[in-house]
Amino acid sequence: MAAATASARRMFEFDLELGGRTELAGADEVGRGCLAGPIVAAAVVFDYGSVDTSLLAPLLKGLGDSKKLTPAARERLFPLIIRHAARFSLVSFTNRTIDENGLHVTNLRALARSLEALSPSPGVSLVDGRQQLKGCLLPHQAIVKGDSKSACIAAASIIAKVFRDRLMCVMHQRYPEYGFDGNAGYGSLAHREAIARHGFTRIHRLSFNVNLPGS
User: Fold this and answer.
1) How far apart are CA 193 and CA 213, in angstroms?
2) Closest C-alpha to 27, from 127, 146, 164
């Protein structure tokens, strides 16, 4: 537990070094590599002018890249992030939008919209990845592997991941043959085998190369 708290503390220190004692937003997305379902982006603002990070780090111990956390850890952190964040936003784009506009364009647009949805705008904005968000109305800085460096980006990745996973569990009730409650729409072997047997659903991304078993 001490290591998990120390890791969270380092992530808050990263934010403070970049933004100082101001409001700082971080944005991240999930679902980019899925075969089905939406892409979801989130932005989370921590107000470092009023938050005591020495107290917040133990509460958010284990904060980090959502992909590396267990479902239980993400579910524990989800309400705590919402409680202690100054504000947050969630933006999603459907599989149809991805098919129409392309994954890359849709991904960057979702991240931009998540930052733009924050009101009032934060003093500093960070986004996970290598690229600036073309057309984004807010000045921002791209942070490579930001979800493992920045507390606000990591928090955004967790918010987006939990929201999307819950949504895909709802989709599992509608399409139980595809195992969305376990694979969240990613291209597991069982998921691809289900596509080969049952075909595509209305939430599958038809522009993706599925690489079906036996094809």
Assistant:
1) 6
2) 127
- Write the CB contacts of 2 (distance below 8 Å, at least 6 apart in sequence): none
Tell me how far CA of residue 76 lies from CA of 44, 88, 214, in angstroms: 17, 17, 40
Strand partners, 127: 27, 142
**Residue corresponding to tokens 């220190």:** 13
Residue 119, token pair as written in the block: 């009101």
Query: CATH topology for 2-165?
Result: Nucleotidyltransferase; domain 5 (3.30.420)
What does the pLDDT look like over 126-159, one tens digit per residue? 999 999 998 999 999 999 999 999 999 999 999 9
Q: What is the dihedral of CA 142, 86, 44, 106, to 10 degrees?
A: -100
Which residues of the chain, if any, have pLDDT below 70?
A: 1, 214-215
- The Cα–Cα gap between 149 and 159 comes to 16
pTM score of the predicted model: 0.96
